[in-house]
């Protein structure tokens, strides 16, 4: 028995020695592991972004390690708690990351060189409520709108993309009557599709973007007010224009339905651009969310989507800071928006966008006022959290299992149960 | 005859065993040594986490500091509408899911086993393998395959129904509140029917041929033979199948997560305790994970399963008649 313990001890010792010998080699070449939910971007990182960084920073290697978007938050939280998370963390906007900062799992990035390339608005998604500390370096925002099949519009005789809600439904009727195409490519079982590409896409035109969003946070408006019920009413009219069996049509189903040329309009986020351009064999076009009436001001969801922060327990803190400084630099903005069209840099001197479809999306920013998704700041801190409730409500309203008024009442009741606006 | 021979063969061993036991009494620690690996592994992997879950359910994180709150988490789970609505709905769905399995999976399993054990059946091995095959597939494959089969866009279900002129009968079953849970239960039954089938098939094969022969001499054949002779002999196995189904169903999570996601849509229509636990413990999208409430739900699942298994062990199994064969 004693013999065995001695052998075991010898093994442990030799293992430690091997590790110790390996350590200097590691120090020469630091590898930073990046946690992210963008598994679609893996090839882009490996082929473009990582080489661009490594060229200018010998001695630091990057390892991009994405998780499926659906599992990212849960997986990241567990990894951070267990101390096995990567050095660089892709930060979801607002509370999910704020919570990590409060738990001391993310560090302040105020001192990172280049942080003055961002306005306070751009930093808001990843700053404490008082705006004093920022804990992730903003990387990209995404825009919402509708992508359409140009061939389909030509076939059914739509000359100009719809500007108002009435025109939108007139065009949908035309496409439906023609019968060649499914008018709208969207499904409801994944829920977030209905909420993000439906509700948050068309909603800002009804609640007047930032005005409405802030009024909701300050408690001056309620989700049962006409301005907030209206987008749900619009969504309720979408059902008949979706593909048959849309209640079981998943997100990838919708993407395929559109890129295979079987649908005319795709309620979209700008992150779809790269994929769609690669797969679609027809002319693609873009139009912003239709306004309620002709002449109404237009708003567009310009949502802070992704930022990069540093794992507070990272063993390669110095290298991580170097990487974050690079993320804050114009060089990163250029590489990122060039290689991932549809993800727009949030730096004050925005990088030129070359992709044609991405340019069309970007034009929304000029014509319409920017806002972000209504549920992200403050309102999803408690139980039940508004974002997830909106997912369910949007899907229910489109499925017709709940009226817009019922859904709005349920949303407000849920919010009232825990959220007390600061007076 | 068999039994008597066995008894006779066993008899001489008894005095021998006593001889060994005498001098060895002092060094009985080998029992501990043999038990130790399993005991240690089981303790480390099952008992400690279980105890820690129970402990977690008594605490609540207030400003990131755990505070002891007694049974308050359970009060919240049962009475606060923000939690209780989901909890009771999930529990109801769990019972529905379980009832579906008990009423469908086990009878079908018994029927298949009865058919397979017919001596004149051809291609037994083929059928046995075919029925058991889905059980060996990963739930991810099963969930994904059925999602594809039932897909309104690319699925074979609408095409097949169309081929027999019943296209109008097709609905997006997985996407409708009224049908989603039933559809999932049917998929689960399809996947796991092989387990009761195999267990009961084995029990049926173990029935001595003499009994069947005697029954036939008395004129009991066909279905009557199954009901009067075979069924009473396989009741204990059916009991085991039922309790396995119970434990499996109240722990169920994987298939529903694969098909409907953590939100168990549409509108929580397929939410069972497993998915509710996952959402709560690990968080979901913007909802942050709450290990304490998660542990509370896990504790409830443990207690429900414990109660069910105890009721079976003490209430049913103890009273079950066994026949020495």
Topology diagram in text:
The complex is a heterodimer of chains A (423) and B (325).
Chain A: H1 2-28, E1 30-36, H2 42-56, E2 60-66, H3 69-82, E3 88-91, H4 95-102, H5 120-124, E4 137-149, H6 150-156, H7 165-178, E5 182-184, H8 192-202, H9 204-207, H10 209-218, H11 226-236, H12 251-259, E6 263-269, H13 273-279, E7 284-287, E8 299-310, H14 317-327, H15 330-339, H16 356-367, E9 369-371, H17 386-399, H18 404-416
Parallel strand pairs in A: 1-2, 1-3, 5-6, 8-9
Antiparallel strand pairs in A: 3-8, 4-6, 4-7, 4-8
Helix pairs in contact in A: 2-15, 8-17, 11-17, 11-18, 17-18
Chain B: H1 2-10, H2 13-24, H3 29-56, E1 59-62, E2 65-68, H4 72-79, H5 81-116, H6 124-136, H7 139-149, H8 156-163, H9 177-192, H10 194-205, H11 209-217, H12 222-250, H13 254-260, H14 273-282, E3 283-284, E4 287-288, H15 291-316
Antiparallel strand pairs in B: 1-2, 3-4
